[in-house]
């Protein structure tokens, strides 16, 4: 039966208090998942209070991975969670930063669109924030738009956003919006007590800005008893059933189920005046069961240079959770700093026990030689190998140097080389601005039948997302072909090489694009699934 959509788009604002990194993204995605499982069309948006126009220019050490959408937007990594949970694509409009808001307002001012008025934070910046929030709702594609406000209540940077929420709630009228506030209940081990005071203060800070939260989600290490819930409800002016516990769990994928148990979705539905519909969350439950009860564990090396901060590889890490579950195993990722793989001996010591080797994306020449050494180890020892973006480029360089005997072959990204087997794309040559100027977003790719990639995708035509400036140099295509490295994926419009394989090797696949951006709980990425399967087979063959 086709469900009738509510006539008015409903808005949920998710704010955070007390501390950062409490998991607003996961709570937003969990609520969205539950509403989606009840037949509502939901999208999630993230508003980031920093001045960068987008996170594309941020160092992964500062902000974790930069996630890329189908339409080529470089966005916050939380959008990755949204897509993985909801299995539906996001776009540029789903991530807005203060930098972009100001840029839009200043551009408008330069065009004279404010007709001589003094341009101010209120109303001009707040109007632009409200426009960006409502934009997702105006297309009538969604019943519910969830907007996550980055940062912590009380920060100077967050103020215009909270003010915009206050104004919007008035504009939208009753039952058309709610505020979910996520805070921390710290545990004092010396006295064995959970403390509610920071939450009370955080809600007060929101109230000072004219916003009363409707639902409180309390992050905690220990279960909250009835007393604590009642106390928080009383002091913070919310219903007792709107105080929700968010206890630490071993996998983020369990959070929606925990929220469901406490009726977070039903409380939201009631407050938004939506109808209660049946829920179907069985596929999600099956997935969580598989994640929690793997049949065995395999170790895969993730070779990269940002290994101290796993958030820098968030989508790759999550793709392995999905692919592990699909194969009934737990993939234990061993982070190997590529700068440490200085020679063959180091490669043996660091990679010798691995069931598979993934060489990660990256920028700049630092760590590149170590990645090339890791590829060589995988190739020579017939260990399953998966190279992503720079990882694929390193595979090409390694093959050129050691099989094609092109001494000093390399990527022009690392400096001049006699054999530029990886080179800057023609259209990139005049580009000087860094922000948003790479080859970004989804491009088509045609696969060769009989290749490992084709076997994984089971389709000749695929589309994958990109984020890079350099490419396989087609000048050397024949050299590679005649020596056993095959380009098995080609962009049909430009002839750019998107995938290389070594057919003789048990599983050696390098991809110029980023498959990790498209892996979701419902659709684990076929290449990750196939790579994990190859790693399991390798492990069993070693015994
Ligand atoms: N630095 C390489 C390029 O720009 C690879 C980028 C990546 O790994 N995302 O082509």
Q: Count the strands?
A: 23
Q: What ligand molecules are bound, each kind once? A: glutamine
**In percent, how helical is the residue content?**
25-40%
The termini sit apart by: 53 Å
Radius of gyration: 25 Å
Percentage of residues in DSSP E strands: 15-25%
Query: Mean of the pLDDT scores?
Result: 94
Strand sequence of the main sheet, in spatial order?
13-12-14-15-23-22-21-18-19
Low-confidence stretches: none
| Total helical elements | 18
Question: What is the SS-derived class?
Answer: alpha/beta
What global shape is seen?
Answer: globular
Largest sheet: 9 strands, mixed
Verbal overview:
By secondary structure, the chain is α/β, with parallel strands linked by helices. The protein contains 18 helices and 23 strands. A nine-stranded mixed beta sheet has the order 13-12-14-15-23-22-21-18-19, with helices on both faces. Strands 5-2-6-1-7-10-11 form a seven-stranded parallel beta sheet, sandwiched between helices. It is globular, with a radius of gyration of 25 Å. The mean pLDDT is 94. The structure holds glutamine (GLN). The site of glutamine has 10 residues, from strand 19.
